[in-house]
Amino acid sequence: MHRRRFLSHCIQLIAAPVIALFYPKQATSAWLASHFATTEFSPQFQQLYAGLSITDTTDIEISLPDIAENGAVVPISISSKLDNIQGFDIWVEKNPTPLAAEIHFSADVLAVMTGRIKMAESCQVIVIAHQNQGLLRNQKWVNVMQGGCGTG
Amino acid sequence: MASSIKIRSQQLDDYTEIKVLLSHPMENGRNRDVNGILIPAHFIQEMIIELNNKTIITADLGGSVSKNPFFTFQLKNGNSGQTLTVRWIDNLGQSDSAEHILE
Fold it and tell me: Where are the domains of chain B?
C-alpha cells in the first residue's frame, strides 16, 4: 500500500513540472474580458494600472495621421529605441471599447510595430509601453472625419 | 477554404520584417446590418506568433482593431529558413493557424 502511494506521488511530482514546461504560455496569456470591457476610458485605464506609476515620454514614438478620413481604419505605428520594452497597450480614449490591443514581445522582437485601429470620434490615442516593472506613456490627438457606427 | 492568414517576411540590414494579414470581420457588437439588426460581436481575441515553436509575440485584441487586422513586426535575429507560425482564436472559439518559412 505504501509502495503504491509512493509510486503515485512520484508520478505526480514528475508530471507536474513536465506539464508546466509544455504549457507555460497558455496559462499566462489568457485574454481578459475585464481589460476589453465596453466602458468609460478613465476608470478603466486607472483600474488596469492601479498602483503603478506612469512616466510620460517622447521616447515611445507614435505615428498616426493628424486627420483620419475614415475612422474604421486608422494606421498606427509605434516604435522605441529604449531597451527592455516588453509590450505596448493601445488605447483609444473615446471608443466604447477603449482598449484596442495589448501586444507582448519577447526579447527576440524589436519594440517596433504597426497596426490598424478603429476610432469612433476625434480623440487621444494613448500608448502604454511596459518596460520591466515600469510604465511609459505617450499619446497623440487624431481628428476623425468619419467615425460613428462601424468604427469604435 | 483559403487560409485566413497571410504572412510575408523580408530580411533587411538590421532586422527581419514580418507582415501578418488576418481575414476577419472584427465586429464589435455595436453595428447593424442593412435591416437594422444588431450584428453580434465577432472579433479575434488573441493572436500568437511563434518562431521555431517559441512564442515571440502575443497580441490580445478587442473590437477596436480594424476589420482584417494587419500588423508588422521586426525580428532581431531572424534567419532565412526559420519557421514562423501565426495562430488566432476569436470570441466564438473559431481559430486558424498558418506557417511561413522566413525569406
Answer: 5-101
Phi then psi dihedrals of residue A123, to 5 deg: -175, -175
Check if A152 contacts B (Cβ < 8 Å).
Answer: yes
H helices then E strands: how many in chain B? 0, 7
CB contact A52 to B (< 8 Å):
no
Is the minimum CB–CB distance between A22 and chain B shorter than 8 Å?
Answer: no
Q: Do B64 and A115 touch (CB under 8 A)?
A: no
* Cα dihedral A45→A46→A50→A54 (10° resolution): 80
Range list of H helices, A75-134: none
Classify B5-101 by CATH class. mainly beta
Domain ranges (residues) in chain A = 1-30, 32-146
pLDDT per residue as tens digits for the range A78-97: 999 999 999 999 999 999 99
CB < 8 Å from B in window 58-117 of A: 72-74, 92, 95-110, 112-117
Which ipTM value was assigned to this complex? 0.95
The CATH number of A32-146 is 2.60.40.2470
- State the nearest Cα–Cα gap between B101 and chain A, in angstroms: 17
pTM above 0.90? no
